[in-house]
Amino acid sequence: MKPGHGDVLLAEGDPELAEEEERLIAEFRRQLDQGMWAAVPTTDGVRHEAVMVREFTEVPRDAERVVFYPSAAGG
After folding, report:
1. Fewer Cβ within 10 Å of end Cβ, the chain: N or C?
2. What are 56-67's pLDDT values in tens digits?
3. CA-to-CA distance for 22 and 51, rounded, in angstroms?
4. In terms of pTM, does the model score above 0.90?
5. What is the residue range of 44's domain?
């Protein structure tokens, strides 16, 4: 996806601030509970690469974003 062409901001905040971290964790958990998968982009540019994460604690502290997307349908 291109920024501004389908991306939706769900939450933002500073994980160094306890109240904001709690809000980020709650939204992270809500997305996973709805069946979404989470990934942290590792590169910018033409080639998109990311690392899958299953817990908020796996998100690097310096990550600019976490991308949520639906799991693939089928088997």
Report:
1. C
2. 999 999 998 999
3. 22
4. no
5. 18-70
